[in-house]
């Protein structure tokens, strides 16, 4: 392909909102343009790389026996109502009404569509396991799209779904997907961090996210310095505190030396810091008590105080609203994802000041576990280890000291609800944990019966009995993967493509596209193309400096410069440079095609094996 | 690929609405399933063929230098407002509002998006000509989707757009596209009828449709028995009537022998047939006069009678509503597409009875050209040849006879507005015209300045002067092309795929997938796969008859049957059958892979050259 025919509108200036390298470089190198906020057009060069990522994903899916299908992008709303996600999905779901007033969604993900397809075709256990996938357009109505295609509104996702007669079969496909994902990212030249969502203390491995490190990542990752532990902070656990007490009895015994708890006046003391200064103590010695409001709670609340929740209108329905007191060591934060998961709640958030006052019968800032009978009390594991603590006393300007769990109060639930942070200890090996910011590129997940149950999928087992299949889902964002490759492979001058994803393998730069240089460039280009190598030939009438800068910006893995000097040598020479290296080296013009083809094949083989 | 792992849910029964062969066979052979009315899922086998059509289209676009890009499917409504199509497109445009209340459309076509992209990047004439395309999801909110993917709501279209500094350059790309389209359809094994929209008498060739014959086609085609003339009836012209008078003077002279026109009483005569019976004459001798209402008329109406149209509010804006009298020979029909095109009107339709009465000052059924001063009169060419005609007399139960154009009335316009029909004469060669029903698979079209003007696209020419580029657009429906291949290539037993589009090239059917037969089948499959041939191996535990029927239904071009008898011969034999032929022939097992590979390559070469 000649450069002048390839529509590569490179830019010196980039839009002000392009704050990350991939966004900047995709615009500068002419890979991408903006159509509207969060909507982008891939230009020819960008699309070439995009298609290569797609193809790698397709090959790896096919290799594990997943079958590609293509449902529509616009999906009947009925299916989403069946699964319940029409209501639960929130505003990021783009809903449409057509001329006949029928509801549709522009697919953000396709559990419903795939489940509906399989529901209609599945009859016998012999058809299982079955894994289907698509590589197709998705839409998520992000309220603040940004970072280019890293978080756009429309994007392409490979989403796969599988159905199984039993958990072992699901696990087998789940593991195969995990291996395929590792291969996909390796072939793209990406370093990913596979993050098990509930590894370690919580047991099992029903979900794994594939993250890349990124300063603008949406996710905080918790990693261990000593072992391979990696988790999303939303789900991360850590080793139990050494003071952990396994039961009320043990805690009582540990508190036997603690004086009885007593009231202390704390006038005008509002924050934990002020309290610590006032009492000359540390946050670790304080039991922080927060009041949470939860909605759509599915866990059993029958033992919670009567006034703390609204009864559901129907039996078995979720409780629409419930309040909880949550106690944790003063230096730690409550992890709301863990809390919501424990309560099986749709959402949890701090209660309003009015609710706090009403429910604790005390001003905001003085909640505490002792004597609190109006709310179910959930305590973090760390609180079990505190046998001489300071807490709010449920009255203005008053606190208690010498408080101990087991002796002075008990809990409705004892759970891991802390947000793990750098410096905590690994639950697997005890090593020190640290954090990184990460972006999720892929996610594999054991769904279980969520969709097959709500959408009534069944098959006949060996005994002719109707059974419900269990299900897994597996996604990869194609755009985000491509952008992440650029994030990982660039320098100040531009992109440094891995050969597997590069829009072209070789850029040929004749110093002047004229006379002998033109002839040599054309010949080399033809030979390389013949050998299956993808060539961009810079045929522009530009100064060499401009051409070199553009070659660096575009990031083509190999650059071949053809100049008069080299050609006039007894054995004509061309100059080769890898984009990833500083040094150039000379190659005989006549051997250049064969040698380059060989190097590129090696490069590709390295990535693909 | 083993049949049992390929998810091919074949059907005996098909949905009642599957009335055409491709719809029926795509369901029966497990290529397609319905998700909702007009929304379909391609299953693995269908998607393989679909991707092959896509790839053929892509290769042919690339071969003529068009560059693939990928805008989004969801497009900002703002761009459609700029072009004016937000309002003019009607209800088939799927409009969406997102959470921020911004307008979007789910793209039915992408003139706006492509023009916006080029507008931002185009600066110099050196960048032109430029041809860009996408192969992407489209949505058209059909009120009555039917015939499976032949007329679905969501579909995939290849749409290309080109920009040029002048008409010669546009014509060059337009011609190249036409050639590429012919190659695409040939490679798919399709017989298409290229239909020039305005060939022949009307001159030029700014639009060409690629049609396939189809009993359920949306289009009536007019074809010549003697030459290659082919046109959509909406635009078809025919040879002028032999009585055609070129001017009012010639007509006057021809009418010199005709008695003066006179009023005749025609009580209770309502239709042309009744009138012919009453006057003992033929419809050919009657001038039919119809009153039309046109909206958004852009042609110059300054010479039309004042009361016949509503003035536009702004100068240069289209006239919102105008009325016309249209006269044509009594045995012919007015072609409303031609009429709208002549008037540059958004739409034309017969005026309401009330408007007819108001404007002609006579009951409905008695309009005529003589004495009609309230409306601009447009006459078809045929009326110029009538010098002794019957017409309405603009009064109840009255007609005129002996009417002649030029002598008794003149016209505001003389144009070709007739609907051509079978039996008319070809405008190119005088041969007899006949009709066929057809479906449009592709369309190439010279757009001119419509979008570059409304959306303000410009570039600097050689002299640094700002100029507006001219534009072409070129579409092919991928789904419809695929379905049309099945329409053309099938029999009672199933599909007969051309090798280029077949989901697999060979189906291997061991009589029993066991023992020696299994070994031979596996070996042949491996050898063929090694040779680049796509193989489906029927590994199912089914009776041979079932397997043979399914092989016929799926339409794989070559079937190889492996049986005990053939294998036990001194030189083991397998039985080969082309799907397109009745006869089987035996091949040495050891030579089978090489021979089949050779035959398939020949078959592909035949289609591709």
Features:
homodimer, 609 residues, nine-stranded mixed β-sheet, five-stranded mixed β-sheet
Folded structure, characterized:
The structure is a homodimer of 609-residue chains. Chain A is α+β, with helices and mostly antiparallel strands and 609 residues long. Chain A contains 17 helices and 31 strands. In chain A, the strands form 8 sheets. In chain A, strands 3, 7, 8, 9, 10, 11, 12, 21 and 24 form a 9-stranded mixed β-sheet that branches. In chain A, β1 and β2 form a beta hairpin. The two termini of chain A are 29 Å apart. Chains A and B meet through β1, β2, α2, β3 and β4 of A and β1, β2, α2, β3 and β4 of B.
Protein chains sharing the most extensive interface: A-B, 51 and 51 residues
Helix content of chain A: 25-40%
What about the largest sheet of chain A? Answer: 9 strands, mixed
Number of strands of chain A: 31
Distance between the termini of chain A: 29 Å
- Shape, principal axes of CA atoms of chain A: elongated
Into which percentage range does the β-strand content of chain A fall? 25-35%
Radius of gyration of chain A over alpha carbons?
30 Å
Structural class of chain A: alpha+beta
Q: Please give the count of helices of chain A.
A: 17
Q: Say what oligomer this is.
A: homodimer
């Amino acid at each position: 392909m000649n450069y002048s025919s390839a529509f590569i509108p490179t830019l010196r200036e980039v839009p002000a909102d392009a704050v990350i390298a991939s966004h900047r470089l995709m615009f500068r190198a002419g890979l991408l343009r903006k159509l509207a906020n969060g909507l982008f057009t891939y230009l020819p060069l960008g699309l070439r790389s995009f298609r290569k990522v797609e193809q790698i994903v397709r090959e790896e899916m096919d290799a594990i026996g997943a079958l590609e299908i293509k449902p529509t992008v616009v999906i009947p709303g009925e299916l989403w109502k069946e699964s319940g996600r029409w209501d639960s999905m929130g505003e990021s779901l783009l809903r449409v009404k057509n001329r006949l007033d029928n509801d549709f969604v522009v697919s953000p993900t396709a559990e419903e569509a795939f489940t509906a397809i399989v529901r209609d075709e599945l009859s016998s256990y012999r058809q299982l396991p079955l894994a289907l996938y698509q590589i197709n357009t998705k839409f998520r109505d992000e309220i603040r799209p940004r970072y280019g295609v890293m978080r756009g509104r429309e994007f392409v996702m490979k989403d796969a779904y599988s159905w199984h007669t039993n958990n072992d079969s699901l696990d087998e496909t789940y593991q195969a997907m995990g291996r395929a994902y590792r291969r996909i990212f390796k072939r793209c030249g990406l370093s990913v961090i596979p993050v098990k969502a509930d590894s370690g203390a919580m047991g099992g491995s029903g979900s794994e996210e594939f993250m890349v490190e990124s300063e603008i990542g949406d996710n905080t990752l918790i990693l261990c310095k000593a072992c391979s532990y990696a988790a999303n902070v939303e789900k991360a656990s850590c080793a139990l505190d050494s003071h952990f007490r396994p039961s009320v009895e043990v805690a009582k015994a540990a508190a036997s030396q603690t004086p009885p708890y007593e009231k202390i006046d704390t006038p005008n003391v509002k924050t934990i810091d002020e309290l610590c200064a006032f009492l000359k103590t540390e946050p670790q010695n304080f039991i922080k008590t927060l009041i949470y409001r939860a909605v759509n709670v599915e866990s059993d609340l029958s033992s919670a105080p009567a006034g703390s929740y609204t009864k559901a209108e129907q039996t078995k329905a979720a409780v629409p609203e419930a309040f909880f007191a949550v106690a944790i060591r003063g230096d730690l934060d409550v992890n709301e994802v863990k809390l919501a998961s424990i309560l099986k709640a749709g959402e949890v958030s701090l209660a309003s000041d009015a609710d706090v006052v009403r429910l604790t019968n005390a001003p905001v800032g003085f909640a505490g576990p002792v004597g609190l009978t109006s709310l179910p009390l959930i305590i973090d594991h760390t609180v079990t280890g505190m046998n001489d603590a300071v807490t709010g006393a449920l009255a203005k300007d008053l606190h208690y000291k010498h408080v101990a769990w087991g002796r002075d109060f008990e809990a409705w639930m004892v759970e891991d609800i802390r947000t793990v942070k750098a410096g905590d200890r690994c639950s697997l090996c005890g090593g020190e944990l640290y954090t990184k910011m990460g972006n999720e590129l892929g996610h594999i997940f054991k769904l279980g019966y969520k969709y097959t149950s709500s959408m009534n999928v069944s098959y006949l087992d060996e005994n002719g009995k109707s059974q419900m299949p269990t299900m897994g889902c597996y996604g990869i964002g194609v755009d985000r993967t491509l952008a992440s490759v650029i994030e990982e492979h660039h320098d100040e001058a531009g992109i440094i493509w891995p050969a597997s994803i590069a829009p072209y393998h070789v850029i040929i730069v004749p110093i002047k596209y004229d006379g002998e240089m033109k002839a040599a460039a054309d010949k080399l280009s033809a030979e390389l193309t013949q050998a299956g190598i993808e060539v961009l030939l810079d045929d522009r009438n530009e100064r060499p400096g401009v051409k070199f800068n553009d070659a660096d910006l575009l990031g083509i893995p190999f650059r071949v410069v053809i100049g008069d000097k080299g050609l006039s040598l007894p054995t004509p020479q061309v100059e080769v440079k890898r984009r990833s290296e500083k040094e150039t080296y000379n190659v005989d013009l006549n051997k250049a095609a064969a040698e380059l083809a060989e190097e590129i094949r090696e490069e590709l083989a390295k990535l693909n094996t």
